[in-house]
Design a protein that fits this description.
Elements lengths: L1 E5 L2 E5 L7 H8 L18 E4 L2 E4 L12 E3 L1 H4 L6 H8 L9 H14 L5 H7 L9 H16 L14 H7 L9
Parallel strand pairs: 1-5
Antiparallel strand pairs: 1-2, 3-4, 3-5
Helix pairs in contact: 3-4, 3-6
Pfam families: Fer2, Fer2_2
Keywords: 2Fe-2S, Iron, Iron-sulfur, Metal-binding, Oxidoreductase
Protein name: (2Fe-2S)-binding protein
């Protein structure tokens, strides 16, 4: 059994220790924000934070990270108020959205180490691929996130990510008539 911490929760996977972290997160923990892209560590769609480092989850086995602390996009900030998340929303970066969780995780890991990254630091640290071509806005977005994290700038909090299940049941009319 492999044990480590995911999003501040201790986990114990009853999977082969050679299982890639990506599949343990997606299949066993239902943390589907970590995306499968290329499977060989080049695209970065599966980027997570392991002990403060941006890591491609498809390239790490669960056995290799025994005792580590893993943060996925779901654990970064439930209310989307991490500076990286806020900056990506404020700058309207997401298009198709597939690469965005990995880019946000790479940004968050960079900002943990470097509160004031240069454009060159950003380009060297965030090597994730984007099929939509958000690169022209990426550097500006990461610089904004760094500025927000340092407290030099503010961004309005994003809207709530949804409504509660009880609100949904009360506000959405039933689509299927209830039998009596």
């Amino acid at each position: 059994m492999t044990r480590f911490t995911v999003n501040n929760q201790p986990v114990q996977y009853k999977m082969d220790p050679n299982t890639p972290l990506l599949w343990a997160l997606r299949d066993a923990s239902n943390l589907t924000g970590t995306k499968y892209g290329c499977g060989n560590g080049e695209c970065g769609a599966c980027t997570v934070d392991i002990d403060g480092e941006a890591v491609r989850a498809c390239q790490r086995t669960i056995g290799a990270i025994e005792g580590s602390f893993v943060t996925t996009i779901e654990g970064l900030s439930r209310d989307r108020t991490h500076p990286a998340q806020m900056a990506f929303l404020a700058k309207n970066v997401p298009q198709c959205g597939f690469c965005i969780p990995g880019m946000i995780m790479a940004t968050a890991a960079l900002l943990k180490k470097n509160r004031n990254p240069s454009e060159d630091d950003i380009r060297a640290s965030i090597t994730n691929l984007c099929r939509c071509g958000i690169y022209p806005r990426l550097v500006e977005t990461v610089l904004l996130a760094a500025s927000v994290q340092r407290g030099d700038e503010t961004i309005d909090a994003p809207p709530s990510p949804g409504i509660s299940p009880t609100d949904a049941a009360r506000e959405v009319p039933a689509l299927i008539p209830r039998s009596k």
